[in-house]
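For concreteness, we quote verbatim a single protein encoded this way:
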Amino acid sequence: MPSPRKHVPPLPVRDGLNPTRLVLPHDAASVARFATAAQYLLDRFPHDAARLREKIAAGEVVTGDGTRVTDDTPYRPRGFVYLYRDPPADEPDVPALAEIEVLHRDEDLLVVDKPHRVATMPRGRWVTRTVLTHLRRQLDLPELVPAHRLDRPTAGVLVLTVRPEVRGPYQLVFQERRAHKVYEAVAPLPAADDGGTAFPRTVRSRIVKRRGSVRAEEVPGEVNAESWIDLVDRDPDRGLGLYRLEPHTGKTHQLRLHMASLGLPIRHDPFWPVLRAGSDDDADDGPPLQLLARSLTFVDPLTGRSRRFTSRRNLSAWHPR
């Protein structure tokens, strides 16, 4: 049976940003309360009421089939409404955007070397100052979409698709864990008498990320996370080691949590071994997390050829400037 066709937004990417899609609620209270789609929007975004009225008047709010929403457009439960959200006026500056380096570009893929502290795509406080939005604008690639993600604190190789026609096959490579990922990290050296921390070793555990918690945690139960870890270089004078990490699964904070579970938290990690007060992965105080996505290798789903991309960055705690 063919897979269902994905819904195509009726509004194009504008200034590097996708339109926002809203689904009109179908609960009895909402159906009874709202006669028009405009009433629902104005109720949901009361602080932006004046701006919403401007967008409706300008024809910038449409239904799922592209019909302009007016003051009289009926409220249709489960119906789609698309509109452009205004970027936050207080979005912090991200100087590291200028450090994004293109490693490879062809008609299907764009591969970049992402700096630390740059979000892959819009999320939370970061909307226009992200890898995706920045490159869509800079390279005039409005259909650009990430094939996978890197957390904002992590630097390294990031693969994006250029055309919608190839997006699915490349995203499946990552969703089905067919890409071989190699990371590097700087962390403390194991204690000389700690016979339980011999390398290389594989760490397996169950990791969950609970809603409302900023960091993931290991819990009892069936294993769902596996990482291969090796100590590849030592700096005894500073008590630091350079580690090679290969995640065999892709749980949130997996590598950071597995290193911490060995008593070897990654250098400058605000989450482990102790959660820094008031910290989250959007914080910019202190040195950057010493974790780098060094390389990616996979079989190209379109050509069948092996592809490998390698970061040119170095971890500052291992190579001080």
Residues 185 and 291 are 5 Å apart (CA to CA). The two ends are 57 Å apart (CA to CA).
